[in-house]
Amino acid sequence: MDLPCTVSIIGTGSYVPEKVLTNHDLAKLVETSDEWIHSRTGMRERHIAAADQATSDLASEAATAALADAGIEADELDLLIVATLSPDMFFPSTACFVQEKIGAKNAFCYDLGAACSGFLYALDTAKNQIASGAVKTALVIGAEKMSSFIDWEDRGTCILFGDGAGAAVLQAGGEGRGIMQSAMGSDGSLADLLWTPGGGTRNPISHEMIDQRQHYLKMQGREVFKHAVVRMAEAVTEALGKNGVSSGDIKCFIPHQANIRIIDAIAKRLGIVGRVYTNVEKYANTSSAALAIALDEAARDGTIQKGDLVAMTVFGGGFTWGANVLEWSK
Ligand code: COA
Q1: Which of 146, 214, 249, 319 has the most crowded Cβ, counting Cβ within 10 A?
Q2: What are the residue numbers of the active site?
Q3: pTM of the entire structure?
Q4: What's the pLDDT tens digit per position in 19-58?
Q5: How many helices (H) and strands (E) does the chain have?
Q6: Does ligand 1 have an atom closer than 6 angstroms to the CB of 224?
């Protein structure tokens, strides 16, 4: 049997919750200011999910939009992956809740954990499942309710994150090269620079653990910043090389939306200033949803068009990082 080798994105969607939290709102919660946050991160506001909205609710909204964009029904999906670090529950997977909500009754479903890098890792996983011939149609979602895991008393982290979800439908075939090879890497020796140390088996739920606020995200910002710049720039260079594409061929670079200064530093290193898509000002860092939302927005606002080459890159806790290249064929 000939294996289908081209896998394309046939639809995208995204969703952010209604409530907007501005830098000025944050300045009422912790000692900070709009000027401090904007000058250090490029962020102005972020969206925060309602108390009764779980990650699967955000994911299902993005999924429904992506299916409509692709023009297919949920029961045509064979595979559904949710990349998240803020699942509805430890188990079952958030993907199973999404399956039930959208009616993807023929799909097998699982979550993928690669922190903020999750959407690109999930895209690569789904692409390879399709390319192998194992499945025909896959839905990949990056979804986060970061607001549930943020310490709202820690000004070093609470200003940085937002809630949201983005999704893409993948299928075999399509014009052009589709989703090409990824370059991905991880370094577990640096896990403690960005993590949520409490609540799992290493440090189970207890009154003491909660009193110590160990169930919230902890980060050493400066260290994370340095590694993010180096790793994302390296990953893009490696992905371009693997696919025989030069930087000048790329119409649009879509990096993880963590901080405008990280994005600008990568753009300078790679000589791609002016071709980089950003929306961090509106949504802050939505972790695994960030790349997915940016891809959907870039497709919908006409930044990327049929035949364009797009390079994407991510970085997150673990550390994890990656980049890939795709030819837009919609
Ligand atoms: N408002 C005002 N002051 C703040 C603040 C806030 N929200 N957060 C921290 N500060 C203070 C610090 O306490 C520190 O004060 P001190 O010098 O008196 O100790 C000072 O600002 C500088 O802190 P520092 O952490 O060195 O600032 P920075 O320039 O590195 O910016 C980050 C901090 C978090 C914005 C930046 O390091 C960053 O973006 N890192 C990457 C984070 C990231 O992207 N994580 C996710 C990756 S997926």
Answers
A1: 146
A2: 116, 256, 285
A3: 0.97
A4: 999 999 999 999 999 999 999 999 999 999 999 999 999 9
A5: 11, 13
A6: yes
